[in-house]
Inverse folding.
């Protein structure tokens, strides 16, 4: 029987083996991620410790495989790095896949201020104003589409299917503008800050 | 950090650098394979998993100084063969050590011996000397290397 099947057999039958297996993966991958992020941010352990309101020795300890970490410590470190944290139960296959794809050299998680996917959901007053003006431009494009031989205006903002301009010909341009703006605002506030 | 280094030019001659594809680990072999014997015979299941996870992690890190569990280069007489020490730990809180050297080629590692460690005491006590002798044997061609397979799901 190959190593792989022996391992699968062991993991299927023995709870302690499952525990050891998962512990070995977590105890290496978490410190590895912390060190990768610290290196990417060009921080010393001392600087990270100050940011996370911890002692340098604690940072040194959590970058060591085998150290027991509680979730609160991880949250504090994540906050210091300005990133989120996922603690997720997953199938072994998924865990293994993640581990195989992980490399300390290439791992990165962008800070909240550079996380444009997260930031675009935030609608400030100024942004809403910009949005409305874009919507009005788009409405002009839509009306132009009805005329033969003209192309509607392409707006990058509405290229995703979730916020596509409604193709309802019965609504007036004013209603269209309002509904599109509402749709975007509603969607954009969902999950945002 | 992944270093971008495509090529250097010198007098219009392009010197290309090989790209890093991961470290390869070799066991010291002299008729028997003491590292594998240590792995199978001395390590608990927990420690075996931790050992493999450690090797899998450091395999992908180009600079050994950034290896998560790189301890130090040994000083004194052991400097001759540039023997270094890796460490790992598992649920039993016991500290495990692996002694090895780099080479013979780039991005290759030869594991010489495995041992346990607690406050300056190595078990077996002659672990460092053993590693030195083995490194010397490899240099003199009295022993061979055997590549250690790190399967993705071991």
């Amino acid at each position: 029987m190959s190593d792989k099947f022996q391992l699968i057999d062991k993991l299927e039958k023995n709870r302690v083996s499952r525990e050891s297996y998962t512990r070995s993966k977590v105890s290496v991958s978490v410190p590895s991620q912390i060190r990768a992020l610290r290196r990417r941010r060009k921080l010393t352990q001392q600087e990270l410790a100050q940011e996370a309101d911890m002692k340098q020795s604690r940072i040194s300890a959590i970058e060591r495989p085998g150290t027991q970490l509680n979730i609160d410590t991880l949250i504090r470190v994540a906050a210091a790095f300005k990133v989120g944290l996922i603690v997720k139960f997953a199938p072994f296959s998924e865990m293994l896949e993640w581990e195989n794809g992980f490399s300390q050299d290439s791992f990165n998680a962008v800070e909240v201020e550079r996380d444009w996917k997260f930031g675009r959901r935030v609608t400030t007053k100024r942004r809403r104003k910009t949005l409305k003006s874009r919507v009005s431009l788009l409405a002009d494009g839509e009306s132009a589409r009805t005329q033969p031989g003209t192309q509607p205006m392409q707006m990058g903002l509405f290229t995703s299917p979730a916020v596509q301009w409604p193709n309802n010909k019965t609504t007036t341009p004013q209603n269209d503008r309002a509904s599109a703006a509402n749709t975007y605002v509603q969607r954009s506030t969902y999950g945002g800050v | 950090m992944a270093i971008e280094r495509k090529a250097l030019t010198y007098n219009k001659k392009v010197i290309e650098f090989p790209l890093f594809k991961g470290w390869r680990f070799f066991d010291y072999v002299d008729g028997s394979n003491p590292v594998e014997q240590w792995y199978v015979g001395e390590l608990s299941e927990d420690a075996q998993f931790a050992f493999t996870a450690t090797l899998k992690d450091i395999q992908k890190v180009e600079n050994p100084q950034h290896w998560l569990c790189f301890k130090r280069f040994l000083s004194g007489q052991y400097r001759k063969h540039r023997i270094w020490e890796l460490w790992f730990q598992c649920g039993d809180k016991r500290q495990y050590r692996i002694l090895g050297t780099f080479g013979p080629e780039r991005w290759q590692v030869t594991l010489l011996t495995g041992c346990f460690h607690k406050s300056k005491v190595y078990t077996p006590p002659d672990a460092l000397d053993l590693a030195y002798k083995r490194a010397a044997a490899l240099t003199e061609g009295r022993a061979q290397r055997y590549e250690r397979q790190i399967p993705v799901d071991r």
